[in-house]
Each structure stands twice: as structure tokens, then as C-alpha cells.
Automatic annotation (TrEMBL):
InterPro entries in UniProt: Anoct_dimer, Anoctamin, Anoctamin_TM
Organism classification: Eukaryota, Metazoa, Chordata, Craniata, Vertebrata
All residue ranges annotated as the Anoctamin transmembrane domain in the record: 149-716
Principal subcellular localization: membrane
UniProt gene name: Ano9
Name of protein: Anoctamin
Organism: Urocolius indicus
Length: 737
């Protein structure tokens, strides 16, 4: 039965005898034969070559990578090697075998000599168990069989699902907290004093929102918007932002413990990726010389300049989105549709968010190509180094792609637009956007909600639907041929390998980046969930719901729709852990900035404890935020409008020359900043420094307080070492006196 198990299948088109492609194919297969590989050929619409490596290769691997201290004592080389390790070794040898023309398998695939090479899904109990217990929607809330996943897909895939499961489990607590904050905002804060003042401001006339065709408007017209804003922007959100900064640290510290527990029995603590790669190179070619460590400052400088150039391009795209929003707002305010005119700013934000999502889809492809090109420029020494360099670059590019626009909305929108009579303009024509009198945080909320919902619905549907459709189409295309095999080629149809190889070939090809893409998607989601959570407390809930489906979606794809992934060995999630730790620090900075700059939390607190009736009049029977809205508005004289501004008709019942208002802290005579502006600026700065220092201290304390490795795991290793040393002593013969 073992003789009929094949490690890999190579697929090729049927080429003419004597053609260049046929000769190249024969040369490659001859090289494999010289290394002792058994090769079986099956002909259908295409040529299928099953390859099986000789036992000697695996014996060499076992000998080279066993514990160095036990090499001298043990000579037992007959132990079975795991299927995942077997596939990994054969994959390495296939892709590093050189033909006499100095071509590798990758070059032959590019030249259409071979179409593809893949390991086989085996019709065994393990795969059927994973189908039944893991890759099913009904198991949504069940624990994953990590050990079984490892036995079938290897340690790297198992660690991904262990990490994703643990992340989703802890997200549940953050999701409950975010939901409580949001519900509390709806029930308690929608009737806050600040939003009540906006709703009752029937006599407060505001400056036009654009230069042409925009009317004066009453502050009370934005009553609903104000209630929504104060539903998000409240004291509860501040507490939740602090909670999420601590949660991010606790999550990573607990993951380190969880990972230590998961890999305890995998015997990987002494495993070294570089050593394994060297061993495989020697098994493949005994004359192989290792690449020396090198560093080129010239290459590093070029790569750094190109990375900065790419980041500048991505920030430029964010600027283009800003320009779109500015122009869209101007066009919507002049629309003949009343709905568009009344909600011009909100419509510009929503359409801008959709456009941002489209740019994310396009730039993701471009970012990958640029990151790969930069990695090739660096020419890393090992596969693991290449993967680490690529990870850092692609994450950096993706981070700026996803967050540049959000950073503008959070920290610049409404703060660099000037004031009536002296607006900052794009190309001297279009005014930059302004914040609503109740703050900019709702704009950030809308942008994040749209992007997260689109990413978690459309992207996930496409991620599963496209492979499913491809699989069905490939299967349908082979049906007629199958019938002809049964009718006219009964000898071949009876070959037990043929149906297995064909069914595996019909599955979708596994991209080299498929697992990497899953990790990247989750780390970007983690960034959304932590960095701007102060503006969008529902982010953890959306992420939690998405991940419940994501686990089963990925499982179903790997088991049912894709060819078997080449197993990779790993003892942790690699450089992704450092990326997650960096995101955790960015989360502290981001949330501190959102509360200090974007939110109205600080201005309201400054007003309450400095300028409110409670402080000035010593009144205790009124809400301390009474009068805040009027205090946060500045006055503007109509005669100071810019010459090209078309001053609209006055609202009925108000004098033509009455003073109009806008949101800022400026003097009425020369429009310079007031003392209150500088008070608030100082308070924002003080809060930011305090928040970040406290949050970072708590993170450090949490990291110290929670050990990376549980004591039970340490004791297990202690017992194992003790037991091994006792066994070693038995080999020492007693000395004769």
C-alpha cells in the first residue's frame, strides 16, 4: 500500500516528441531519477507524473536534524517520518533540483514545460475527521482540533488557526465591552446637555458651508447629527479606549502563554529554521556551499528611499481622497435634489469611504508587487529572511493604504481649513471641509464603519465564492472526459492513482501567499480593532463576528476547494508577533490622539472646570456643561466675506446684517485665537502625554506580570530533561579500580 503513496504530482501538457519542452521535461525527470526518485506516468488530457522520494533522503534528514547529544548513542533510523515533513522535504528537493541547462522547476513552469506541482490530499481518516469536525458551519462555536490540523497541514497552518482562535476568543470580551459602551451611549448620552443645546439653538445662525448656492442655516437643523455624535463621543468611550490599550497587551502576553502550551509536545524548542534549510540543501546537493552573511549599505539605502517614495505615493492617494470629498461636498450642496443638499457632508463622507475601499483593493495588488521587487533587490540569504523582509514591507504599505485617509479625518479635518473670510482652498477654488459644531468624530465613525463592513462582507464573499466557482467549473470541464475514460480506456480508469490525481488537479491552486494573505488580513483587522477604537467602539464586535465565520471559511477552503498546502514547520507566528506588538503601541498613541484631538471630551472638560456656571457663578443646581455650545462658537461679520463668495439670502425673521457664527475659538475683531483656544490646546497636550504614559506603563506592568511560558510547561520540560539525563548516565560504564 505504501508503494502506491506518492509524495508529489507534476502536471504537464502533452508536448510533441523531440520538442524543446519535451526534452527539458525529460532532463528534469532524469535528474530526479538519479537522486533515487520513483516516477509514475499517467496520461489523460495532460501528463501526470507521480514522484516518490527514496527512504535514504528521509534517513539523512532524521540523522542531521535529531538532537546532537543523542546522535552518538542512537542509530535507530527506521522510525516513520511524518507525512507533513515528507512533503516539505520533497517540495524543497523538487524546487532546488538543477537540470544540465541550470534550470530549476520554477524556470520550467515559467517556460510552460510543467504546468504545476502539488502534494496530494489523502483519502484518510484524518482528512475526513477535519471535514466533519472542523470545516463545517455548524461547528462555529466549537474548539478547533489544532493537533489534527498540525498533523495534516503542518505547524505553520496549525499555529495560524491557534492564533486566530485565541484572538477571536479574547475579542469576545472586547466586543461585549464595546457593545456596552455603544448601548450606554444610545440610552444615556443621546439626551446630554450638549446635544440638547444644539437641538434648542433656534436663533443661532451658522455660516454657509460653501461659497455658491449654500444658505445660512440654523444650528438646530443638525439636532440628529449632534445626538449621534454624543452617542459616540462621551466619557464611556475614553474608558473603553484605555481598556482596549490594556486588552491589546494582555492578548499578546496570553497568546505567548497559549502558544507555549500548544507547541509543548511538538518538540520544536530546539528547532532552528536556518539549520533545517542548510540540512535540506546538503541532502539535495552534498557539494552545496552556504551563502555567506552580507550587508550592503548601498542596497539598504536604495530600498529605504524606494520604501519612503512608496509611502509618499500612498499618502498622495489619501490627499486625492480628501480632494474628492471637498469637491463632492461642493457639488452635493449645489444639487437640485433636496436630500443631497441637506446631507451633502455626510454623503461626501460615505461615498469617500466607498472610494477608499476601492483604492484599498487596487493598491493591495500594487503593494505586493512593489514589496516583492524590493525584497528581490535586497536578495535575502534565506527563505525565512526573505519572508520577514516581505512581511515588514507589505504591512507598512498596507497600513498606509488603509489608515492614511483615517488619519486625515481624525487629526486634520476641520483644523487646517482656516475661518470665514480666510479659508484654506485647494487650487485657490475649493474650500477644505469643516467639522460639524458637535465635532469630527462621527465622520471617523462613518468611515471606519463603511470600510470594515465592506471588507468583512464583500471581501469574504469573494474570498470563498471565486474559489468555489472555479472548482465547480474545473470539475464540469472534466466530466465528458471522465465518461470517455470509463467507456473506452478501462485499463487506465482502473488505476487507483488516476482518479485521485485527477480529483486533486481539479481543485484550486494554492498560491504561495495564501496563508500569508490570511495573516495580513487579520493583522490589518486587529489594527482597525485597536488603533481607532475610541471613534468606533463596535469594531471589536464586527471583528468577532467576522472571525467566527473566517475560521470555518478558511478551513473549508483548505480542505474542500484547494489543493493540499505544502506544510511548513514553525515554532511561533514569526515576525507577525513583532508587528502585533508595534500595532499595540500605535493603538495607545492613536487612541490618545483621538480622545485628545478628534473628540470633544477635552474641550468639554476644560469648559466644565474653568468657564462653566458651576465655576463662574458657583451654581450647583445646573449641569456644568450648560452654555458649552455657545462658548465653542465664534462670531463673524457678513461684510468680511471674501469678494468672490456669493452671500446667500438671509433666513426669514432675521436681520440682514446680524452676526453669523462658526465653530472655532477666535476673537470677533481680528479673528485671532482666544485665550480659551490656548487653554484647550494645553489641556489636549497634557492629556495626551498623561494618557500615553499611563497606558504604556500599564502595558509594561501587564507584560511583566504575565509570564510568557506557564509554570506547568516549564516543569514539563524540566522533567523531560531530567529523565533524558538519567537515561544518558546508563551509557556510562562504571570505571574499574
Amino acid at each position: 500500500q505504501d508503494e502506491e503513496k506518492w509524495d508529489f504530482v507534476l502536471v504537464s501538457d502533452i508536448h510533441e516528441m523531440g520538442s524543446e519542452k519535451e526534452i527539458k521535461r525529460k532532463k528534469f525527470l532524469d535528474e530526479l531519477s538519479k537522486k533515487g526518485f520513483a516516477i509514475k506516468k499517467i496520461e489523460d488530457k495532460k501528463l501526470f507524473y507521480g514522484v516518490r522520494a527514496p527512504k535514504l533522503i528521509f534517513q539523512k534528514y532524521q540523522w542531521l536534524l535529531r538532537n546532537p547529544d543523542s546522535r552518538l548513542q542512537s542509530h535507530d533510523m527506521d522510525g516513520d517520518i511524518p507525512v507533513t515533513t515528507r512533503i516539505r522535504i520533497v517540495y524543497f528537493i523538487l524546487h532546488n533540483t538543477l537540470t544540465p541547462d541550470l534550470e530549476k522547476l520554477r524556470d520550467l513552469v515559467k517556460k510552460k514545460v510543467f504546468e504545476v506541482a502539488f502534494p496530494l490530499h489523502e483519502q484518510e481518516e484524518l482528512r475526513e475527521m477535519l471535514k466533519e469536525k472542523w470545516a463545517r458551519w455548524r461547528d462555529l462555536f466549537c474548539q478547533q482540533p489544532i493537533e489534527k490540523i498540525r498533523c495534516y497541514f503542518g505547524e505553520k497552518v496549525a499555529l495560524y488557526f491557534a492564533w486566530l482562535g485565541w484572538y477571536t476568543y479574547l475579542l469576545g470580551f472586547a466586543a461585549v465591552g464595546g457593545l456596552l459602551v455603544f448601548v450606554t451611549g444610545i440610552t444615556v448620552f443621546s439626551s446630554s446637555q450638549v446635544s440638547r443645546e444644539i437641538c434648542e439653538a433656534n436663533n443661532t445662525i451658522m455660516c454657509p458651508l460653501c461659497d455658491q448656492k449654500c444658505p445660512f442655516w440654523l444650528l438646530s437643523d443638525t439636532c440628529t447629527y449632534a445626538k449621534v455624535t454624543h452617542m459616540i463621543d462621551n466619557e464611556g468611550t475614553v474608558l473603553f479606549a484605555i481598556f482596549m490599550a490594556i486588552w491589546a497587551t494582555v492578548f499578546l502576553e496570553l497568546w505567548k502563554r497559549q502558544r507555549a502550551t500548544v507547541v509543548t509536545n511538538w518538540d520544536l524548542y530546539g528547532w532552528d529554521e536556518d539549520e533545517e534549510e542548510l540540512a535540506l540543501q546538503l541532502i539535495n546537493n552534498l557539494q552545496h556551499e552556504p551563502r555567506r552573511y552580507q550587508h550592503s549599505y548601498w542596497h539598504s539605502t536604495i530600498v529605504l528611499v524606494l520604501v519612503l517614495l512608496m509611502i509618499a505615493v500612498l499618502i498622495g492617494i489619501a490627499h486625492a481622497l480628501v480632494i474628492y470629498r471637498v469637491i463632492a461636498t461642493a457639488l452635493f450642496t449645489q444639487s437640485s435634489l433636496e436630500l443631497l443638499r441637506e446631507h451633502a457632508n455626510t454623503m461626501a463622507v460615505m461615498t469617500g469611504a466607498v472610494l477608499h475601499y476601492i483604492t484599498i483593493l487596487i493598491m493591495t495588488r500594487i503593494n505586493r508587487r512593489v514589496a516583492l521587487y524590493l525584497c528581490d533587490l535586497e536578495n535575502p540569504r534565506t527563505i525565512s529572511q526573505h519572508e520577514n523582509n516581505f512581511t515588514v514591507k507589505i504591512f507598512t504599505f498596507q497600513f498606509f493604504t488603509h489608515f492614511s485617509s483615517l488619519i486625515y479625518i481624525a487629526f486634520f479635518l476641520g483644523r487646517i481649513n482656516g475661518h470665514p473670510g480666510n479659508y484654506v482652498r485647494i487650487a485657490g477654488k475649493w474650500r477644505l471641509e469643516e467639522c460639524h459644531p458637535s465635532g469630527c468624530i462621527t465622520d471617523l465613525f462613518i468611515q471606519m464603519a463603511v470600510i470594515m463592513l465592506l471588507k468583512q462582507t464583500i471581501s469574504n464573499v469573494i474570498e470563498y465564492l471565486i474559489p468555489w466557482i472555479r472548482y465547480k467549473l474545473r470539475k464540469e470541464n472534466r466530466q465528458p472526459k471522465k465518461r470517455s475514460i470509463i467507456l473506452g480506456e478501462e485499463e487506465e480508469a482502473e488505476d487507483p492513482c488516476k482518479s485521485q490525481w485527477l480529483s486533486n488537479y481539479q481543485l484550486n491552486e494554492v498560491e504561495i501567499f495564501s496563508l500569508f494573505d490570511e495573516f495580513l488580513e487579520m493583522v490589518i483587522q486587529y489594527s482597525f480593532t485597536t488603533i481607532f477604537v475610541a471613534a468606533f467602539p463596535l469594531a471589536p464586535l464586527l471583528a468577532f463576528c467576522n472571525n467566527l465565520f473566517e475560521i470555518r471559511l478558511d478551513a473549508s477552503k483548505m480542505i474542500r476547494l484547494q489543493r493540499r498546502m505544502v506544510p511548513r514547520k514553525a515554532k511561533d507566528i514569526g515576525i507577525w508577533l513583532q508587528v502585533l506588538e508595534a500595532v499595540g503601541i500605535l493603538a495607545v498613541i492613536g487612541n490618545g490622539l483621538v480622545i485628545a484631538i478628534t473628540s470633544d471630551f477635552i474641550p468639554v472638560q476644560v469648559y466644565k472646570y474653568t468657564y462653566s456656571p458651576c465655576m463662574v457663578l458657583n451654581s450647583t443646581d445646573v449641569d456644568c456643561s450648560t452654555g458649552y455650545i455657545n462658548h465653542s462658537l465664534s462670531v463673524f461679520r457678513i461684510q468680511d466675506f471674501e469678494p468672490h463668495t456669493k452671500v446667500p439670502e438671509m433666513l426669514p425673521g432675521f436681520a440682514r446684517d446680524s452676526i453669523k457664527e462658526y465653530r472655532d475659538y477666535r476673537n470677533a475683531d481680528d479673528y485671532s485665537y482666544t485665550v480659551q483656544f490656548w487653554h484647550i490646546f494645553a489641556a489636549r497636550l497634557a492629556f495626551l502625554i498623561l494618557f500615553e504614559h499611563v497606558a504604556l506603563c500599564v502595558k509594561l506592568i501587564a507584560a511583566w506580570y504575565i509570564p510568557d511560558v506557564p509554570q506547568s510547561v516549564k516543569n514539563q520540560f524540566l522533567d523531560r530533561k531530567h529523565s533524558n539525563l538519567r537515561k544518558e548516565l546508563r551509557w556510562v560504564m562504571p570505571q574499574k579500580v
